[in-house]
Records
---
Amino acid sequence: MDAVRGFALCGIHVVNVYQQVVFAAMFGDQRGLGLGVMPDVVRYGFYERFLPIFTLLFGVGFALFLASAENRTDRPRVVFARRLAVLAAIGALHQLVHPGEVLLPYAIFGLVILLPASYLRPWWAVGVGVVLILVGGQTVAGYGVMPGLLVLGYGLAGLGVADALGTHARRWSVAAVALGAVTVAYWATVAAGVELPRLSFGATSLPSQLAGVLTGLFYVCALALVLRTPPGRALGRLLTPMGRMALTNYLLATVLILGLSPLFGIDGLEDWPAVVGLVVGIIALEIVFSRL
């Protein structure tokens, strides 16, 4: 699971460079306008693809923490609530330099949605999570699906999915093929300029949000298969320490992005080679740092 979390961080770094630097330079405080000019590779391959993985794993991590804490204390949810309060404080400070970051929303949704959902049985949690995704995906981009993904992650952990990353190769293969087919079909639809039905209660549409979630799940299934191969096991040894220090690396990336982007001369869409170089450099630094 740590390897998957590290993998998700790598993709998140790409999007964050555009949001924190490129779109800030182009649009100032209206960074959301950047979605209309975001390179297609980033918009449909990275944006809202890796963050759902990170969010789902937060829910999984909550379930694992709760199971462990129940053996050490009579009030495990109180302990986790305190951790969420600390996370909220960190997230509030992080918002000052990285508007749109995820730590504060995780803390809020964790307290309001995830803690109450922890009283549900796993299958019920999965069902509630799916419903929340379908509803939230029609409200606001990115944040709308977060509550559902958190609850879904909690439910999947209770069903043992997190423990199955290294087993059940056939099931992961079937899931990868199915989700991959959906992902490719969506990409083909976008490339052909086909307008999908707009299902929305608010500022976004459900099909685009579901596409992000399903593409992220496809990436997870594909990675689960890759990690079984000799090159994949080597990749896993690099990603696992990075994922184990996910919070630190997420915050560190903000410092590195804001500090190094001027040195790379990043301030526009034409600077994508520098963006690639910066992201690769950040990932390399975090891999080394995480192994110290």
---
Amino acid sequence: MRSTPRHHRARLVGSLATLALLVLAACSEPSAVVTRGSASTLPASMTPDTTAPDTTAPDMTAPDTTAPDTTTPDTTGSATTGSATTGSVTTAAAGTYEVARVVGQVVDDARAGRVISYQVYAPIGVAGDVPVVLVSHGGFGNPRGHLAGEHLGATFASGGFVAIHLAHDVSAAGSRQVDDRPADVTFLLDQLAAGRIAMPPSFAGRPDLDRVGHTGHSYGAYTSHAVGGASYTGSPGVASPFRDDRIDAIAPISPQGPDQFGTFLRSADDTSWTTVTIPAYDLVGEAEISTNATGTVQQPGWRLAPFDHYPGTSDTFRSIIAGQDHSDMWTSGAPDVQAFIAGEILDFMRVYVAGDPTVDPCTIGVGELTSTSATLERGAATTGSRVSGCA
């Protein structure tokens, strides 16, 4: 059953935004060459990303024309992980750990040498098995997309996750982004399992492939749904071939409604989202609910369709943030909005990916906002729900 929407008014600037800023200021990773890139310090402050927002084609940006990352593609060798210890790492609140990052590339020879650039954010000094969150950008294709949305990766890593941002490049002739994006995620996880994704030298742990989540904005939200099991086959109730069973939970930011990227909705029980059986947290801007990025779709409640049609097999959440449009939900929103999105996804992943018993699931989606407000809806799983008793 679904709880009644709760309205959360703005309060004083919370610790979430402050801690997210502190993690960036505290980072001191040297610029040493590692297996797949150069480690570098994070910015001294969490300023909004200046990547241009989605402005062309439905939920797509024009391909980025800047020069691609020039790190030499490498698919051999092992990642630099330091002296990891045994045991699973317990996650923490945003801002707990200092953060280091490293960039690199891997090449998928099976797809005509498709290059996937990535940026890893990792908690400094953490040892043991560390949960993972993958992040996909929006837009049609961008070889530098792994450099965007750093407020997400930095926040996740500061809370004890390895966060990996992927660049989903422009698709080659004869292939499609709807196919390439989820394939990029699966290939990167394969490379991570093989030890071919570089880690910052100051990270002493191991990425835990048994605890993996995915989040993404716009076309990245499609990517979350695709690897999370949504059906894009056009066949009712038939799972898409893009499902990756290593993904434990998803957090689509600005998700698509029906009739885009292969999604469909014909009746209450015949949709693309009834095959998403894992926990999901949808985040939607109030100003984008009924339209896609360029206004070519105009349907009341369009972006609300996924949450409304999840099958009830797992806990689900939906936050609607007042006054926010499509680009605000990525990088042009106010600092407190960016901190809210990153922090609430972190708490969601702590519960449903990391299995952290110290986080109360009833607090997911109730973080602090100062420039606006948000509403929260929960969908409690029919069995084994962690939120059925929430007020």
